[in-house]
Protein 1
Amino acid sequence: MSAWKGLLARARSILRPGDAEARLDEEFRFHVETQTEHLIREGVPPAEARRQALLAFGAVEGHREAMRDERGARYLDDLRADVRYALKSIRRHPGFILAATLTLGLGIGVNGIVFGYVNSILFRPVPAHAPGELAALFTRDTRTGATGAVGYDDFVDFRDRSGAFAGLAAMTGTPVNLMVPQGAGNAIGDMVWAEIVTEDFFSVLGTRPAIGRFFTAADAPQGGNPFVVLSYLTWQRRFQGDPQVLGRSVRINGREFVVTGVAPPGFRGMRRLGFWPEVWMPIGMQPIVQPGAPNLLHGRGGGPLLVVGRLRPGADLDGTQVMAAEFARQLEAAYPRSNAHVGVRVLAAAVGFENPSIIKPQILVLSSALGIFGSLIVLAIICANLAVLQLARTASRAREIAIRLSLGCSRGRLARQLFVESLMMSAPGVALGAVMMRLASPLEPYFTPKLAFQVGLAPTADARVMLFTGAIAVAAVMVFGLIPAVRAGRFGLGTHAASALGAGRSDVQRPSRTRSVLVASQLALAVMPLIAASLFVRSLSMADTVNLGFEPRDRVMVSMNVGLQGYDQARGLRFYEEVLRRTRMLPGVVAASFSYPAPFDTNDRAVRLYVEGRANSSDGTVGAQGTFVADDFIPALGLRLQAGRDFTPGDDADAPLAMVVSESLASRLWPGKSPVGQRARYGGASGPEVSVIGVVGDAKFAVIGEVSTTRAYLPLRQRYRDWETLVVHTRDTPASTLAALREVIAGIDPSLPPFGALTMEQAVTNGFFSSRMAVAIASFFGLLALLIASVGLYAVVARSVVERTQEMGVRIALGLTPRGVLAHLMRDGARLGLIGLAFGLAGGLGLARAMAGVLPGVSPADPLTFTVVPAALIVVVAIATFVPARRAARLDAAAALRTE
Amino acid sequence: MSPHRPSEPDPLRGSIDLLVLKALSLEPMHGWGIGARIQQMSRGRLDVNQGSLYPALQRLEHRGDIESAWQTTENNRRARYYTLTARGRRELGHQLEKWKRFTQAISLIVEG
């Protein structure tokens, strides 16, 4: 304790030197006065007493100096001098500071972001009680080793009879229609991702609700427990964080459910990847949550359930695996028909889990390691560049350093000064990195694909991420700061001083091979993402002019899933018909129809068609995209009819099977023939026969990944789907049309939530989202790489300029013009630049070919890209070599020679 | 650069620490009082130089052997009083031990 107090006292006196001095003054004054009084009491006259007291006390200033030294104030004074010196140096080299700040900051920030994602995949525990005790239970085929989900009856036996776990819960994911009452009879709904879980799910996890409580097995019998737990995000977004939400009822798939509680922030169930659940419901309600689906509450030898359990106190994974496997053998013996060869696999679930046969854990680890490795390499290159640059600056100060050494400045002191300088130069970079690291989470929505439900990793800057990034930053600053400091420490006195004064006389004249290779490869690596970014930009600008094949203007769309509401096909078709009838009566509506998928949404369905003699696959069929539409879809979607006719209400189950094909599909299946009236078979040679009744122009339903525009349009009445998108061509405003459409749907089924309402133009914009994101990412990394490479190139040239000062002096003395000096020094840099460019272009061309599939409208050898990128690089190379070389060209021959 | 300063405590430094700790082992005291007490305990033979006393007090405080606080004296003046800490008391024990061994050794040589 007292050692600690001593430390405090010391820290106080160092941190607040003014206070310490003032206290010292008072203490000294007290001493002199007390001594004076003492002497007076002994009979000395007052004036004489004071003189004696002062005399005895000695030179007060002397004491003060001794005590200041004792306090470590000298150290502090030296540090202040170093800081002042560094600040001066920083002011003199703003360009260097800018380069150091940007490259270090981005390097550290990228490391922080990458680790943030890795952390959320590999390390961050689920927000549950003692997550280390959680384990996942999968079935395991004892012949193949493949793991799978579990059936309910097996799960119940494992839970109640195996004794292998302290608790066991099961879950499965599903979309549901959610309607949230807004008062006054209105409701806002959406289709959301849900998890149905066993009633004891939350108590097995030991998760605490943010508000309210979780449902339990004791609440009500299965089937009589219409309770729902909201995710924290859903509570905030759909219920505005209303604390009164508890006890309110919402409609899920048309049935009333009561909100019992809200899950804690960050709780997204036990799945590592996959959709984020918005609501959790008891598994007993599955018949209502998944109407028409097979009953979940029975089944053996595999099933749809993901199972998570808590280990018994003191038990480990291996022991639990042994116990569970033994119990699985008992089940196998008892139920040989369903459970033959069904073993188990117990896995750690502290950070969540996925079926290891679907998502290989090694791949997650490997890709994480690659990400970290890559970002560390980037940072290492940055540090190496900055260290070389700093060395070049140190070398150019070699004369000053040698003089200071011979004047008695200790080497340690000198190294410390350079280290302080590096620290101060890297401080803004570290700060920038810390800011960047925090962007991981807010930026995530821009990087995750837009799917029907939210996905993501939700990286958070938790203690682990802070620690990792902090350690990375410290290591980077040490590497960047210590190399020059150690090198400076090597400048010796005497003979060493002489060689330091004549810096680099015996040094190699060309930049070192390693450094050259490093810089050339940096440039090459910068070229590739720049080419990718440029190609993406070109492709996007082409896409603006490219013919979509449909007319997106004045069109709105809204989706609905009647299957979740429990509609059968007959009721679904009646519902679609009624929606279309009422919609077509709305003012301003030109055309209305259903489509699935709608243009530019993320779903797609393939159909296989068999045509005699046209087969090219093993089963003799040709694949095409399938679109399931209602009558009048051609004007509603704005397609162009080229031959034949549109669907009518007459194309129903009683009529012959009919389809409309796209131009490409027609020429693929019946080249050179008139397609209308041609016949094909669904699925294979023995499938039902379908005839072509119309041909429409090719349309782009997606941007990325769509190479073919071969598409078959099939009538809903013959090929029913319970999830459709209503597409309406209207002369009214999108907002009022969408409001009217919601009323139409609510008028028919008030508990059915319409979702995904937007204009067709918005859908097209969303469709280009991934391309725009790819542009942003490729540009960011391209520019980052270019920045790093140019700093490296600058450093190499600057260093060779310093090393060759004398040589240049001699050459100038022998008649070389400044222009000649410049050319001479820039030649090396230019050579490195061209080598890097050549390799980069070769790599870029390869990359462009590999990306051809996702770059519609642009040739992989796009001439504009392959002109602009090299030109930009040549400009950067020229600047990075010219600036340091110019300094040498300005040399005065006599002064340069004198550096000897 | 600063001139070289000895980093090892010289004998005088060592003994003034011992004297201060000993003087404070009776009761808390201010700087002047410590000097006066050492003088008194040595029956006037030792007059501690203030130039070593105050740095020694600061050193001991930073080491955690003593702590200080501002208090009022009997004649109503503010003075900085130093108190021995538990650590300081142990340190005093060690130093006394060392001192005794040292003086015994010297005596053996000088008187032997």
Protein 2
Amino acid sequence: MTLTKRIIPCIDVDLDEDGNPAVYTGVHFEDLKYTGDPVEMAKAYNESGADEFVFLDITASADGRETMLDVVNRVADEVFIPLTVGGGIRTTEDIKETLRAGADKVSITTGALERPELINEGAKAFGSQCIVISVDAKRRYDEGGEHYVEVDGESCWFECTKKGGREGTGIDVLEWAAEAESRGAGELFVNSIDKDGTKDGYDLPLTEAVCDVVDTPVIASSGCGSPDDMYDVFTKAGADAGLAASIFHFDEYSIEETKAHLDERGVPVRR
Amino acid sequence: MSVVSKSPEETLASVVVVDYGLGNLRSVTRGLERAGADVEITDDPEAFAAADGVVLPGVGAFREGVENADPIREDLLEVVERGQPLFGICLGMQMLLTSSEEGETDGDAAVKGLDLVPGTNVRFSDGQKVPHMGWNELEVAREHPLVEGIDGEYAYFVHSYYAVPERDEAAVATTDYEREFPSIVANDEGTVFGTQFHPEKSGETGLQILRNFVEICAEER
């Protein structure tokens, strides 16, 4: 046997009307739907064979942050698998506080784009293994990129975006992925604004291009609509882990089913 | 598939988790508690002596680990001389060996491990992605109470270096990552052992290992 491909449910945590933590699943990072209590959800996923969890604080507020740390705390006491926590992390103090609450890794998006030294500082203080750099990539068909790939007969590049794709940065995802790795990122978390919420599959050209420029593990995210999409991202794009939210949250497929499907087709998974 | 087990009603053994300033001790503490241990997190050598067993955790680099643990080096060796179980996790396991490629191995600048399991730690260099991160399979190589009930199960790894013990018998379990390496090591007496993976992050399999450890400690009472 060998290292298995990881199946990771992603749990978006927001506050409900009463200020309690609640899980939401976004479509194109907008139109959020309520789906349940984060701690109960984590326990259920653990029992069905999740390999890790990603928790994202989508409130980006002080209250949200406080609630998030409490959720992480409670999940870490119940569930003994790795937890990655993201959302609003901008300083080494934020990293420290999140790890102390029980997270094993932090996922950083904007904080690292705005101040890349945060990666070096985080890796030095806490180890590369806990610094996950997340990118929200968007396909661009203009002249502004550095690396172009052919997608459906058209040449495009991938831009790092902020604010869920609403704001561009002009930074090429492939340049940034290589820089993040050289600064000490231990894993890359690749989201696609174009694919998010579509359920028509991961952005395979994007994932493959990132896998080609870095040696650190790549977690593919956005667009998973079925176990077959997971199969494609592992076998065609070379991802190390596949992240999904809505297909699991709405019980369209269980993690067990997904793993059985992959196992039958020769993809190594933990069962 | 993994099912979260409940903590036993009463504690079976007292365990010290050595706090030498490296890493998050929360998960390993919760895991040990779930496995039935009464846990104290400390760097006080007197507490080491009073406990039924000692856990040496750790994440990060070999040199930093050895340097941070230097003030309590002799105390850890005394734990072993007294015959108390000593359980190294991840970097804590690597520190049970003699040296590592990650720190100088020769001369005045040599970074010395505890030398309780003779051997060195070397970096993966067979073209694999490094670090080795994720779930991989444990193949039990020989009998040891720590590995009761875990043959063929999966554990969660995050590491770039792996142990190369001088004696093959030191490998209690092995794992395959483009090459076979020892994922659990132990000394000849069986009282010093370590896992390269994180039992506290390895779901029910990890908890089983922690329960096995607590039972080993309980027998030492």
